[in-house]
Amino acid sequence: MRSYLLIVIVSLCSALSGVAMSFSLETTPDSAAVRGINNSTYAHDNVQNCLRCHGELYYTIEDTLSGSIKRRLMSDHLRISTDEFYGSVHWNFSCLDCHSEGYAAFPHALDLRFEEAWGCIDCHGYDEKFAKFNFESIEQEFQKSVHYTAMDGAFTCWECHNPHSYKVQARESLTSENFIVESNKMCLSCHGSPEKFGLYSDKKLGAVMTKHDWLPNQTLHLQAVRCIECHTMQSDDVMVAHFVTPKDDAVKNCVDCHSQNSILVGSLYKFQSKEARSKYGVLNGVILSNDSYVIGANRNLFISYAGIAAVVLTLLGIAIHSIFRIIIKR
Amino acid sequence: MSEKMYLYPAWTRLWHAINAILCLALIVTGFSMLYSNPDRFVVNFSSAVAIHNVAGVLLTINYFVFFVGNMFTSNGKHYKLALKGLGQRLFLQMRYYALGYFKGQESPYPVTTEQKFNPLQQVSYVGVMYGIMFVLFVTGWGLLFPEFILKKLLGFSGIFLTAQLHVIMGFLIFVFLFVHLYVSTMGVTVASNFKSIVNGWQEKH
Prior knowledge:
The complex is a heterodimer of chains A (330) and B (205). With 330 residues, chain A is mainly alpha-helical. In chain A, 45% of the residues lie in helices and 7% in strands.
């Protein structure tokens, strides 16, 4: 892997502030090359301009009058991994497709920080191409969630889904374990980080493990179950539930999951059935090979015994009638 | 040689034969799905699921033939249930099966071309064809397309309720099968009714 170094002087900045900025850049262009990006394209050039600072751990500023150079640390929440960006679903977008044109100038104007970010629904809503994800229902669920209601709408999609690194995990993850880890990472990025949690709430953040003390086989559960299985209102309309409920409404009864009559079992059945149908069609995915049906899933002991009893009683009645027929010879 | 009447036209015999084969396949594979371990119990699990689904789809098509046939042919009249005096008619027929039959009495509702089912048969056939079978189709197709099933009803998962209703109806069909076969042996001879559903001609008592 070969890296290269660029120094760019932004003269516009000196005109505004008397200080010229220089940016030292070390990037690996390989991830972009892998995606087949033509380096001359506008989008790629625009992204590269931004990543000169936002893709790096450090950036430098230079006072062109005095020649003084300062090296600065790029804040974590403003830093974007080049590899992650080009591996994300939004890899072919220009930064200014989503951010204000004003960001083309440096230093960035203060009022840009109050710019309202676009949500997922703004691009993906009411679009046939994304119909299977049902962003409209996701938006409705999200607006009912405790995240949205507790913060008067200040909580946006981006708090959980980083648009600069977002991947469609369910389709691209190799294993379900990875999928669970990735899903839970989103929740833990705030609920496991007092610093980030403090951005949204003045409450003291308790340790996740302590809060789940009551849970039997705690480690196993937290490794094998997504947070949202218990902390959302499940819905059949969307692939991933977004109606995050207040903590007091979280699932706490074992039988809510560990029983045949569970919403979780129902959701999994529906999800798998729909997935199989969209992948293999009705004939192959549902009729000839219905993997969503699990052995014994519909077996209810009472109904099984009652059914067998009905059959036995019927046969007994037939046997008695037959015996009389034989005796009377009819 | 006893007198004969043409009771079962070709389309009803063909429909009945297909119905019988498919119902047997559904009952056997249904039990395999309900009670099986992964590789035993009559039919192995994955084959049972595939056969059950295919037979269910074919049975739906066959049911459509029956439904349309009954709408546009005279066969439909046998499924029109007259509610007035039904209780009395059922009582008389049950008493005949329990007592009169053994005493050698004539059936209170002998088979004619105008009335090929006695009241008990009529009630059970209408119940099976327009009640139980209908519920089986709705629940069966619902399980193939689960997004149409209610998420929750009366505190129960919709999928769970649908599956249980499907199983209960399946058991009722299984019970009906035994009774149907047994009552069919009560013709002029034990085999005469079986012959008539094959060749269409019914012997008169």
